[in-house]
Amino acid sequence: MREEQYIPLIHQSLTDQLSGEEADRLQKWLSADPKNQEIYAEILEGWEMANSYDLPIEVDTDRAFDKFITNTQVQNTTITTNSPTPVRRLWPMISTVAAVGLLLIGVIWTWQTTVSHDALLVETVATGPRTLVTLPDQSVVTLNKGAKISYDLNFGERQIQLDGEAFFEVTKNPKKPFTILTKNTATTVLGTSFNINNEATKTIVTVFTGKVSFKDRAGKNGSLILTRAERGIYQTDQPTLNKENQIALETINWQRENIAYEDQSLSKILPALETFYNVSFELSEPTLNNCTFTGNFNRASLNNALETLVTVLNLSFTKNNKKVILSGEGCPAAVE
After folding, report:
1. Which contacts of 76-82 are long-range, i.e. CB under 8 A and separated by 24 or more positions?
2. Residue 333 lies in a domain
3. Cα torsion at 137, 196, 244, 191 (round to 10°)?
4. With contact defined as beta carbons under 8 Å apart, do 213 and 164 qualify?
5. Which of 274, 277, 281, 268 is nearest to 303 (CA)?
6. Which residues contact 227 (CB under 8 A, 6 or more apart)?
7. Residues 263 and 306 sit within 8 Å (Cβ to Cβ)
8. Rounded CA gap, 208 and 201, in Å?
9. pTM for the predicted model, two decimal places
10. Residue 299: what pLDDT?
């Protein structure tokens, strides 16, 4: 959350209105950065200074205004004659009170703005490998484990923020494009299905159906138009946009209820199995990568999937915690 989004929590803490969960959030924010503690201290100081004045105060506004005009005239005269007056001595106190007033007005204004906008932010974090989220426009997002999306509750602009990997099935609406923002990229569609994997070093968009526009948010590399079986890759460190064609879509199956392959090499299958089952593979023979497999695992357990794989390819396997070692005779490389 941005700094200004914690101001309502600070306000609630000063008025003893924080829930236990909110108190924990505020404490974590304060512990995260000394600058956050400085912000809290400044607001607390202004709050305590304001509370040192007795309220309510009955004010004759007409008389006060007349007195202000008179004092201003006296002050101007005093400045030119270099004569000491009470007005000069009062100015530091008036400035302090005005500063406190402005600070409190700022806190209240920011709090109201936050409540009307940021408090309506919906955020979902996936704790499992396949978390389904149905958006207000009936688009469906499947989040991979650890992925996070956030969007405005009313979803008027059909725009979401993504961190991690997610598969999108977007409801078509030509009048309202659907946009997914990551830290460095923007993907815009009208209605389609595609996968976005947003990592620290790169963002990868793979299109299953329809058409998408993929670009970096800095606008330095133009944009890519991607269609079925095409992939756009944004490299963070360079930064560059590149396109790959003829992607084997069946190798991206983490979001599906089953894993199906047709004449695909292990070099393409194993990375998807690693994601699907949260394991790593090691090959006793590098040319095993050339062996091809056709089959369907139907959300089988890891052991059942491995049994199917080694039976078809005449291999053997051993498991050591999260590592799977495949052994057997390799296969010749495919002739181009």
Report:
1. none
2. no
3. 0
4. no
5. 277
6. 207, 210, 211
7. no
8. 23
9. 0.52
10. 65
DSSP string, 44-72: HHHHHHHHTS-S-----HHHHHHHHHHHH
Instruction: Please choose, from the candidates 134, 287, 268, 145, the residue with its C-alpha nearest in 3D space to the C-alpha of residue 259.
Output: 268
Name the amino acid, one letter, at 270: L
Tokens standing for residue 244: 């790959």
Residue 241, pLDDT > 90, answer yes
Q: What is the pLDDT of residues 137-154, one digit of tens each?
A: 999 999 988 999 999 988
* Residue 291: HSE in the Cβ half-sphere, 13 Å Cα cutoff: 20
Q: What is the pLDDT of residues 207-232, one digit of tens each?
A: 988 999 999 998 888 899 999 989 99
Cα–Cα distance, 303 to 291 (Å, whole number): 20
Cβ atoms within 10 A of the Cβ of 42, count?
Answer: 11
CATH, residue 322? 3.55.50.30
- What is the C-alpha separation between 247 and 255, in angstroms, rounded? 17
The CA distance from 299 to 307, in Å, is 13
Which one-letter DSSP state was computed for residue 17?
-
Structure tokens at 125: 């974090």
* Residue that finishes a domain, picked among 215, 247, 279: 247
82 confidence band (pLDDT: 50, 70, 90) = very low
Six token digits for residue 280: 């790593």
Q: What is the pLDDT of residues 262-301, one digit of tens each?
A: 888 898 888 878 877 778 999 999 999 999 998 877 766 7
Q: Are residues 169 and 243 in the same domain?
A: yes
Clarify whether residues 141 and 161 are in a common domain.
Answer: yes
CA angle 103, 109, 110 (to 5 degrees): 90
Last residue of a domain, one of 116, 146, 168: 116
d(CA 313, CA 5): 56
Distance CA 323, CA 161 (A): 33
Element at 328 (helix H, strand E): none
Angle at 331 between CA 327 and CA 332, to 5 degrees: 150
Q: Which domain holds residue 239?
A: 127-247
Is-contact 103 43, C-beta < 8 A?
yes
